[in-house]
Amino acid sequence: MNHFLGIDIGGTNIVFGVVNESGEVVFEESVPTSDFESAEKLADYISTAVKNNFKGNLSSIGIGAPSLNRETLEIEYAPNLNWGEIIPIKTIFEEKFSLPVYVENDANAYARGVKVFGEGKELENFAVVTLGTGVGLGTIINNAVVEGSNGLAGELGHFVVHQAGRECKCGNLGCLEAYVGAHGIVTTAKEKLEFSSGGSALHKIQPSDLTPTEIFNAARKDDPVALEVVDAVCHDLGYALSSLINLMDIENIYLTGGITNSGNILRRKTEKHLKTYVLPNLRSKINLKITSLNQNGGEILGAVASIHEFSKATIS
Ligand SMILES: [Zn+2]
To answer: All domains of the chain, ordered by start, with CATH?
Structure first.
């Protein structure tokens, strides 16, 4: 049976794993991105980890990467990575592994994963929203990944939700990512905690230790400040998604990423806000779900789904 290596390069964590041709993850590992000073060091680490944990042969490698230049297959000016302005990611992994390497924009890779291995198998049109350090969008229309003229379609994180709002890492003001990305969620919590009188469990956490997961978990326990934060996050996400739906008429939207592990609260509240903004005739048709790939190696499966052998399932 053929085996493939899938790697997802995130701003906070890098996940990688070996997947067989049935889509089963036979080995996986997650490491903090900050452990590596360069992509070459990451390639060295993954090579050793795979050799130590998987005894078969690999056929090829798929990589989900942020800020990817589709022509050169280099990572360019990634705001959440500190490995230099231009990272020739394909070349680095080809040289280390001597195997074919396929690189895809990370959110598009995830959408391919949902198409090949998840709920998207039977769907011609759907979107996947990745919620992490950044906020990404992979869209499949008529069975093809929407790439745009420069391969940059789906920069949902930089959809402006607040006019003259918070500064975003891209340099613009009021981007969705500045509110719904991991740092944005924590910033909102700190702002609200400053003006609350102490009746929140979040006050017991050092501000520098606050994480989106803790904030969402506190909201599930009806913590008043955490609930305000989560409601603000879900409002902005719902607001942005309603425009996506109104523009593209996409019924099926799948959420994934760290904060979607916090039960149903994110999905439920986002759906509520989304439905207040979406066109009335689309309102009853929306299917907003957390993808089943979320807790089943979704990033790794997405990276592997970008390997040509699998990506044939989606036309482009
Ligand atoms: Zn931005």
So the answer is: 3-112+297-311 (3.30.420.40), 122-290 (3.30.420.40)
